[in-house]
Amino acid sequence: xxxxxxxxxxxxxxxxxxxxxxxxxxxxxxxxxxxxxxxxxxxxxxxxxxxxxxxxxxxxxxxxxxxxxxxxxxxxxxxxxxx
Length: 83
Known about the structure:
- This protein is α+β, with helices and mostly antiparallel strands.
- The protein has one domain.
- The protein has one helix at about 30-50; strands at about 1-10, 20-25, 75-80.
- Strands 2-1-3 form a three-stranded antiparallel sheet, with helices on one face.
- The radius of gyration is 13 Å and the shape is globular.
- The protein starts with a strand and ends with a strand.
- The mean pLDDT is about 90.
């Protein structure tokens, strides 16, 4: 069975919590690297622009990045390919 590693982004807490898919890789190492790059870039952008004035598509590692006062978090999960 083949596995892909799906990267998710998330922000918010409680009823304001949002999650979205960012990318998928066949390689776990590539998924880990993507999570690290997206996280580093998100932190740079938050330091530069603040939580509420981020330009759309500013994070080249996550064009759909969303953020609120809680920041943004990235993770990945293995998913079986049922083909």
